[in-house]
Design goal:
This protein is mostly helical. The protein is built from 5 helices and no strands. Helices cover about 80% and strands about 0% of the residues.
Length: about 140
């Protein structure tokens, strides 16, 4: 009896998570169309929202794979699927990071050569050299 209640509660929680993720996916698809005409601020906000949700989902996946109940019952095939897709996402993220950072570095060098760097922002950056980032 207790085992059946636990299973129903557990399944209900999983269903709730899936429905919440579907709602987010639906919202993302709707907003995606609007981003075609977005200004810089809207693009930044949309990207940051995407990062926050990806981080939340990744943290949930990480906790999922630390739960002895989950991993004790998950078939190898499901683990292989998650591992393979996680590695594909990781490679895509690394490729994006390498490409974006390289392009931005080149653009910054171009602006510096042309004397077009904002001196106030550049000065602030020099003061923050101890923090991660460019410069």
């Amino acid at each position: 009896m207790v085992e059946g209640q636990f299973a129903r509660s557990f399944v209900a929680n999983l269903e709730h998570w899936v429905e919440a993720q579907k709602l987010v996916l639906s919202s993302v698809r709707k907003v995606e169309e609007q981003l075609k005409d977005a200004d810089r601020l809207e693009l930044i906000l949309a990207t940051r929202m995407a990062f926050r949700h990806m981080i939340r989902t990744l943290e949930a996946f990480d906790k999922w794979l630390q739960d002895p109940f989950i991993i004790g019952h998950m078939p190898r095939e499901m683990l292989e699927e998650v591992q393979k897709k996680a590695w594909e996402l990781l490679k895509q993220l690394l490729e994006l990071d390498i490409s974006h950072t390289t392009q931005f570095k080149d653009y910054m060098l171009k602006l510096a050569r042309e004397g077009k760097l904002n001196p106030l922002l550049a000065a602030q950056r020099r003061e923050e050299r101890g923090t991660p980032g460019v410069f």
